[in-house]
Design goal:
Distance between the termini: 49 Å
Largest sheet: none
Order of helices and strands: HHHHHHHHHHHH
Radius of gyration: 17 Å
Number of strands: 0
Number of domains: 1
Strand content: under 5%
Shape: globular
Structural class: mainly alpha
Length: about 250
């Protein structure tokens, strides 16, 4: 019962904190924070607590496949919305996500997922380098209902994945973990209200944050059985945060 209540306490609190930070410090910071392994870490934590560390370990390949699919979706949306509107772009991007997730999960190779993710992150950072920098500190106003929507959606997704984990299995559970509940609405609203340059800032920030997510999953894969659930995931989150902010500093200097 303690784990059950923690799901409904920790998840909306984190969503609220990140959403308020994005509102306060601007588009790229919002993208960077939303790219951190918030939902992913919570999903892996509760999967491990409820199903055992072995289940969480088996979910990592699916999670890495899902991460690659998410980044393919962002890159596609950023590129295609140079020619089409947000609604058409969203529909097409969701189709790309479904196809990418299916293909990557069917292959199931960790090394390939990591390689594809790194390639996609590099491409995103390169193609957004000239459009995002001037708009990184801009604050795009969001409707009042967006933050409560994120809090509710994130909590429901976490509850759905962990409650159905035995039925879904570790691969499908992992595949659902990186779904960008925070970042996707933020990216679309930034695009609609601030234009393509604002979209570039949020996508770039999310890609930088995803480097930390990648490190998080690899750290969990390497340590969760040996260290146990809480130490492994805690160390992986610290690694993700450090890697993200170091990369952000390096890129800012350039």
């Amino acid at each position: 019962m303690t784990v059950f209540y923690l799901k409904f306490l920790i998840t909306p609190t984190l969503m609220l904190a990140i959403s308020l930070a994005a509102r306060r410090w601007g588009t790229q910071i919002g993208g960077l924070l939303s790219g951190l392994p918030v939902t992913s870490a919570l999903v892996m934590l509760f999967l491990s607590l409820e199903q055992g560390p072995g289940f969480a370990l088996q979910a990592v390949p699916g999670a890495l496949a899902g991460l690659a699919a998410v980044q393919a979706t962002y890159l596609f949306y950023f590129l295609v919305t140079r020619r089409v509107g947000a609604l058409t772009g969203c529909i097409a991007a969701l189709a790309v996500y479904a196809a990418s997730a299916f293909v990557m999960s069917r292959i199931g190779e960790v090394a390939l997922s990591v390689g594809v993710t790194v390639l996609l992150l590099t491409l995103i950072i390169v193609v957004t380098s000239t459009t995002a920098q001037a708009h990184a500190a801009n604050v795009v106003p969001l409707p009042r209902w967006v933050i409560p929507m994120r809090m509710l959606t994130a909590t429901l997704l976490l509850a759905a994945i962990t409650a159905s984990a035995q039925w879904l299995g570790p691969v499908a559970s992992g595949l659902l973990a990186p779904i960008p509940i925070i970042a996707w609405p933020l990216a679309v609203f930034a695009h609609v209200q601030g234009g393509h340059h604002e979209l570039g800032a949020i996508v770039r920030g999310n890609a930088i944050g995803a480097v930390g997510v990648l490190g998080f999953y690899l750290a969990v894969k390497s340590t969760i059985v040996a260290l146990g659930t809480v130490p492994s995931i805690s160390a992986a989150v610290v690694l993700a945060v450090v890697a993200t902010f170091v990369l952000a500093k390096v890129l800012d200097r350039r």
